[in-house]
Amino acid sequence: MAERRVFRDPAAVARAAAQTVAAAAARAIAGRGVFRIGLSGGRTPELLYRLLASPEFRDRVDWPRVHALFADERDAPPTEPESNYWWIRKLLLERVGVPPGSVHRMKADAVDLDQAARDYEPAVSEPIDLLVLGLGEDGHTASLFPGSPLLEEGGRRVAAVHDSPEPPPRRITLTPRAIAEAREVLVLATGAGKASAVGRALAREGETRACPARLLRDGEWLLDEAAAG
Ligand code: 6PG
After folding, report:
1. What letters, b where the CB count within 10 A reaches 16 and e where it falls short, cover 78-115?
2. Which of 81, 120, 128, 191 is a Cys-bridge partner for 182, taking CB atoms 3.0 to 4.6 Å apart?
3. 1-5, 22-26, 38-42, 224-228: lowest mean pLDDT where?
4. How many Cβ atoms sit within 10 Å of the Cβ of residue 77?
């Protein structure tokens, strides 16, 4: 359900987001026995991931029942900090003890990128319980950039990106279908640099093609005062 909440600073946003994650995990585990969370890279969720791994929060989620999925991935080996997998694993997944077999990496470093995207489809054939997303100053989300033909994609839930305007050009991303199917979407935006993109994403009028983050309008948006403009 669409919701917007504005907090004083990024730390307060992270705290509210951690509470949303803990509540969504409890609901999913009570209902279906597992919690399938979709995680994003970028700098914005760093405070959230650190907080979830902190003594205050780590026992509020039953981590052995968590399956970690990714919103997108860059063409980087899993051993390199440029990969969302590496970074999120170090910051959160390893520290809280998500079983390695429950961490579903997108292999955007594969030679055959389209095949690697197809190989990820079974991981998201069931809806993601909570998908955590950010947005870029250009209005992109996951690796869905303005003007991308993937914004028109209706069939696939996962797709290769060969020409991302932000480096590296090769990536794998969830598509609008996978985002629409997620049971809950949590959007985080902090800092004045995001204010214009947030405004365009949440404006009544506008085109998703120009601002892909409009796909997230029905989600729960947690903003700091700077990003809320
Ligand atoms: C990524 C993301 C991407 C990110 C936005 C915001 O891997 O880069 O999935 O969509 O969320 O670019 O990034 P920042 O949080 O760094 O501003």
Report:
1. beeebbbbbbbbebbbebbebeeebbbbbbbbbeebee
2. 128
3. 1-5
4. 12
CA of 18 to the centre of ligand 1 (A): 18
**Angle at Cα 45 formed by Cα 40 and Cα 49, nearest 5°?**
100
Atom of ligand 1 nearest to the CA of 45: 15
- What confidence tens digit (pLDDT) does each residue in 51-98 have? 999 999 999 999 999 999 999 999 999 999 999 999 999 999 999 999
Cα(229)–Cα(226) distance, rounded to whole angstroms? 5
Give me 66's structure tokens: 């968590």
CA distance 148 to 28: 32
Nearest protein Cα to ligand 1, atom 11: 134
Q: d(Cα 108, Cα 173) in Å, to the nearest integer?
A: 9
Rg (CA), the chain: 16
Dihedral over Cα of 169, 172, 177, 179: its sign: negative
